[in-house]
Amino acid sequence: MNSLHRVLLGAVCAPALMLSQDSFYLKDGDTVVFYGDSITEQRLYTNFTEAYVVTRFPQLNVRFVQSGWGGDRVTGGGGGPIDVRLQRDVLAYRPSVVTIMLGMNDGRYRSFDDEIYKEYTSGIEKIVKTLKTGLPNVRITAIEPSPYDDVTRPPSFEGGYNGVMVRYGSFIRKLGQKENLTVADLNSDVTEALRKANAKDPVIAQKIISDRIHPGAAGHLLMAEALLKSWKAPSIVIDVAIDAEALQATQMVRADVSSIAHAGDTLSWTETDGALPMPVDFGDATTNLAVQSSDFATAVDDERLRVTNLKSGDYTLRIDGETVGTYSAERWDHGVNLAVLQTPMLRQANDVWLLTVYHNNLHNARWRLVQVALEKYALRHTGAAMSEMDTLETEIVAAQHEAAQPKVHRYELVRHNGE
Questions:
Q1: Residue 97 — φ and ψ, nearest 5°?
Q2: Could you give the CA distance from residue 293 to residue 221 in angstroms, rounded to a whole number?
Q3: Which of 97, 128, 225, 376 is the most buried (most CB within 10 A)?
């Protein structure tokens, strides 16, 4: 895409883009540090969250850093005591936004215990105080602990371990009110989705959180949705409506539609969207079940296309010559969510996802295998190695943002079953 086309696209899409961006929690220039235990270390809900931001707001400059360490509690863990963890793995990045998700290990996988609970609550309070002291303008998102799966398998004791996590989450909500924190509930909606998934397919539902603690990609996708909701993330990818009779676009939200034409049984147009759908693997049965058991598609991934005033019959949509799907005229009139279909835009979003994974994996290797692991040896080339890895990560992030930039697509809606 040349620079002139980008300028023109920006002029067309800017009003809707700014309306959405103004209410969104993250701002241009933010640095976000995700802090937590092994569930954060998995780099899945964090990667999904980052991929959403990059694909939904391709012009937004936000840096993301993952600082999860398996086994961590509010007192710290394998990466050192809490004061070391916060200084080295959070404050050192001078973030403007920090998310905190701890609790799964803190409850110690047993029934509720008052003394253990007090250690958790005082520990979270200490973390918040340390962050606010070191970063006076920081915006903190406190996350209610993600679910322990007591849904697809029976609880191991009365009330279940997720009942303990829910009580910990209740404390997080109260602390959020007291300390003016943003609070994200990564438990309630995911647990409800587990219930619905279990009713539909108990075998596949168990794979959403296969070990009852660490979600797979499907569970993390729903967790990212919950975090994004707390950040007032817009649900709309794009929203386009075309009047097939008048040959004009009646709705263009974050999209530019032009060259609408009708030839025989084919309605065609050119479209450039200001955002991409979420990179979701709908070929994965567990992910499909999780999405179908939640409001994910309508809440954060709605890529809406409506075509009105079509003659009756079935119509096949082709984008850049690729068949996307076939629906009746009535269905097109109601609207189709393209985000759940295999499109060139989803393929582009998947490229963004891969680069998101690459840069976070590289950062993790730099942090865990070089910075932390080799610190005690005082090797001469450690600093240079970290600097080179940082430079490479910066290049990958630049490629990630470039991969998210809008592209022009050719749409064809072909009638093949009319009266």
A1: -135, 135
A2: 12
A3: 225
CB count within 10 Å of CB 383 equals: 11
For residue range 209-222, list pLDDT tens digits in order: 999 999 999 999 99
Instruction: Tell me which DSSP letter residue 101 carries.
Output: E
CA distance 264 to 97: 54
- Residue 416's pLDDT band, with cuts at 50, 70 and 90, is confident
Write phi, then psi, for 65 (nearest 5 degrees): -130, 130
- Cα(210)–Cα(286) distance, rounded to whole angstroms? 11
**29-87 residue pLDDT tens:** 999 999 999 999 999 999 999 999 999 999 999 999 999 999 999 999 999 999 999 99
Maximum Cα interatomic distance, the chain, rounded to a whole number of Å: 79
Cβ atoms of residues 149 and 162 within 8 Å: yes
- Judged on CB neighbours under 10 Å (0-12, 13-18, 19+), 252 is buried
| pLDDT tens digits for range 166-203 | 999 999 999 999 999 999 999 999 999 999 999 999 99
pLDDT in tens, 127-175: 999 999 999 999 999 999 999 999 999 999 999 999 999 999 999 999 9
Distance CA 255, CA 313 (A): 27
All structural domains of the chain with their residue ranges: 25-233, 235-419
**Full-model pTM:** 0.94
Q: What's the CA gap between 307 and 305, in Å, rounded?
A: 7
pLDDT value, residue 22: 75
346 burial level (CB within 10 Å; 0-12, 13-18, 19+): buried
Concatenate the DSSP letters of all residues of 258-314 into one string: EEEEEETTEEEEEEEESS------TTSHHHHHHHHTSSHHHHH-EEEEEEESPPSSE
Strands 63-68 and 336-337: unpaired
Number of other CB atoms surrounding residue 318 within 10 Å = 16
Among residues 100, 99, 94, 101, which one has the least CA distance to residue 135?
A: 94
| Number of neighbours of residue 6 by Cβ within 10 angstroms | 14
3-state DSSP percent of the chain in helix, strand and coil, to 5: 45, 20, 30
Class of 25-233 in CATH: alpha beta
180-183 contacts: CB < 8 A, separation 24 or more? Answer: 181/128, 181/140, 181/141, 181/142, 182/25, 182/139, 182/140, 182/141, 182/142, 182/230, 182/231, 183/141, 183/142, 183/143, 183/144, 183/230
